[in-house]
Specification:
alpha/beta, Rossmann fold, four-stranded antiparallel beta sheet, binds adenosine-5'-triphosphate, P-loop_NTPase, 10 helices, 24% strand, 10 strands
């Protein structure tokens, strides 16, 4: 690993049974970069993230985070990374405060520190009024905010976000985008997977497109645009072989009307 590289993948391959999902991913991410990791459904984005956070040890190739091997040093890595999944099972009979207390204790944070920080973060995400309400009745966006806080509570150096804006309202999206930007400015490394192209375009220093388990484009948005001067959405559609959506939509409507 070079001195500032935080994530390194070498010939990363993953099979689920006989299905070859990742077919050789090579990647080096430097400290402070915001990497947008995008690709069509089923391309292997979540699988890559799960390998990087030590959830899937059964892969071939090499994967290190902060210079540590994800196979053998997963626990040490987990202390220094945050992970915000798209849909995690929250213990929703708990209140946000109880849940964050539980998560903070797993990271061995001091109880008073957890309480103070949780209240602050819940307030900033407009959840102060619900801090002590059971999460069973929470909307998707409210749950997503709690998940976001729980992934950041221990102030991790590297943050893995898998569709973190899922269910958030427009104001919350703007706020979380700004939080991501400021986290990166403070030196955190962010590995961000999403389908929301305009957000990826705006927040990423570097965009990596994967399709069918391989990297098919890697660069800043400006670099990718040099190949084709168009929006990330159009570029994505072309590179991943999904242009012609208008025709597909027309066929869909025709099929509905049959
Ligand atoms: N636990 C599993 N067992 C078997 N196959 C799996 C498992 N998890 C994922 N897959 C398969 O691996 C492939 C990649 O899945 P993955 O979730 O990594 O894709 P993705 O790029 O994150 O997709 P999406 O954009 O839909 O979230 C898919 O074909 C999926 O069906």
């Amino acid at each position: 690993m070079t001195s500032s590289s935080v994530i390194e993948l070498k010939d990363l391959q993953k099979h689920y049974g006989s299905t070859h999902v990742l077919k050789g991913i090579d990647l080096t991410v430097s400290a402070g970069q915001v990497v947008g990791y995008i690709g069509p459904n089923g391309a292997g984005k979540s699988t890559t993230l799960k390998i990087l956070i030590g959830m899937l040890p059964d892969f071939t190739g090499e994967a290190t985070v902060l210079g540590m091997d994800v196979r053998t040093q997963a626990l040490d890595i987990k202390r220094r990374i945050g992970y915000v999944p798209e849909n995690a099972a929250l213990y929703d009979t708990l209140t946000p405060m109880e849940y964050l207390q539980f998560v903070g204790q797993l990271y061995e944070l001091d109880n008073a520190h957890i309480e103070r920080k949780s209240l602050d973060l819940l307030r900033l995400l407009q959840l102060a009024d619900h801090a002590n309400a059971r999460m069973t009745t929470f909307s998707k966006g409210m749950r997503q905010k709690v998940l976001l806080i729980s992934g950041l509570l221990h102030n991790p150096d590297v943050i893995f976000l898998d569709e973190p804006l899922s269910g958030l309202d427009a104001n919350a999206v703007v706020l979380v985008k700004e939080i991501i930007r400021q986290l990166a400015n403070s030196g955190k490394t962010i590995f961000y997977s999403s389908h929301i192209m305009d957000v990826v375009e705006k927040i990423s220093d570097r965009i990596i497109i994967i399709a069918q388990g391989r990297i098919i484009a890697d660069g800043t948005f400006a670099e990718l645009q040099q190949q084709r001067p168009e929006s990330l959405e159009q570029l994505f559609a072309e590179l991943t072989g999904n242009d012609g959506q208008t025709m597909v939509a027309e066929e869909f409507i025709q099929a509905l009307n049959l």
